[in-house]
Amino acid sequence: MSAREWIGKDFYRELGVSSDATADEIKKAYRKLAKENHPDANAGNAQAEQKFKAVSEAYGVLSDASKRKEYDEARRLFGGGGGFNFPGGGGTGSFDMGDIFGQAGAGQQGGFGGLGDILGGIFGRGRSSAGATANRPQRGADVETDVRIDFTEAVKGATLPLRLSSPATCATCHGNGARPGTSPRTCPTCSGSGLVSRSQGAFAFSEPCRDCRGRGTIIDDPCPECGGEGISTRTRTLTVRIPPGVDDDQRIRLAGQGEPGRGGAQAGDLYVRVHVAPHALFGRKGLDLTITVPVDFTELTLGTTITVPTLEAKVSLKVPPGTASGRVLRVRGKGIAKRDGSQGDLLVTLQAAIPAKLDDKAREALQAYAEAMAGHDPRPEITELLQGR
User: Fold this and answer.
1) Contact present, 263 and 137 (Cβ < 8 Å)
2) Does the first or last residue of the chain, that is N or C, have fewer Cβ atoms within 10 Å of its Cβ?
């Protein structure tokens, strides 16, 4: 989308957020609306499809800090609806003269490429032709989607098919927006520049051409698939490689798999957000796997050897005599292995298992043990404190 096309659109209203919304609020609003209007959940619903496109377009601008800053600046200058805000003029608000006279250098990058390019020839100080700016290629917006994997796939890595419905270059018109066999024609109003000059009192400035919406061309016979937009929503299947050791809520970037660019520019990127299902036995701390193993009181007291599961097999683990409940034993090299060679361990927490009921024989044995340990105080510090009071 060209910078001039931003001016007449209210991306904040599309997402239902205020202009001072935080990045998290914008992301949350986008996810909610994208889910509600996703083509997969609204088959044949053209209105939902258009809404899905609109919120994706809005998120593509507002989620990018530099694009959002430029968009907000344009709204401030143009009043959010195409009218220029001169002090005492027809618009409401004000503008900083430095934004006009303090033009950025010719090498500036960004969605606007300098406000002088958008305003064209304000006060006769436009630095470049309006036509060059109107037809400047625009990188495609980034797209985000979600996948859910199980715990083992997150640890070992996986290759998954991803079915994605998203805006893409129209396969029927190949992106030019015209019905096959026809071509767009140069707009006679702006002569293909996408901008027209307009006077307001003593000032003259340029604004997007209303006849061609700033594109510089007019499509007399729109493509039946995309309606002249050059972009349509299509379903495609991609192969996503989940690296070993991926974290829950981590994003994986697929370069060039986002929305197509305009005017021959590169496509945006696709970000796949990974959600990892919890495991019934194992947990995770960084590259270490964790597991809690119940053990009998006598095993902790007398010592024993227990068998502990891993994600791949099982290992034998020696419990020293006199081990306290809650102690963590480490099994080297049985955690998560990443491609860079880093390796985690398995952390085994020993937890004393207390029986809920005892038979007569077990109760007599415990009572005899209690009598034998009558002189042992397991809480000497507490006993000393209580006696001192």
Assistant:
1) yes
2) C
Q: Which of 93-107, 132-146, 218-232, 308-322 has the lowest mean pLDDT?
A: 93-107
Q: What is the pTM of this model?
A: 0.52
212 is in an annotated binding site: yes
Q: Which domains does the chain have, with CATH numbers?
A: 1-128 (1.10.287.110), 134-184+219-278 (2.60.260.20), 283-388 (2.60.260.20)
Return the pLDDT at 79.
54
173 is in an annotated binding site: yes
pLDDT tier at 294 (50, 70, 90 boundaries)? very high
Sorted by sequence, the CB contacts under 8 Å of residue 286 that are 6+ apart come out as: 344
Q: Which residues contact 205 (CB under 8 A, 6 or more apart)?
A: 84, 119, 120, 121, 122, 197, 198
pLDDT band at 148 (very low <50, low <70, confident <90, very high): very high
| 117/165 Cα distance (integer angstroms) | 35
**132: annotated binding-site residue?**
no
Alpha-carbon torsion (368, 370, 374, 375), positive or negative: positive
Q: For 255-264, how does the pLDDT look when each residue is reduced to its tens digit (9 = 90+)? A: 988 887 766 6
364 is annotated as contributing to ligand binding: no
Task: Compute the distance between CA of residue 259 and CA of residue 241 in angstroms, rounded to an integer.
Answer: 20
**Is it the case that residue 178 has pLDDT exceeding 60?**
yes
CB 140 within 8 A of CB 270: no
Would the annotation count 190 as a binding residue?
yes
Sign (positive/negative) of CA torsion 15, 17, 19, 21?
negative
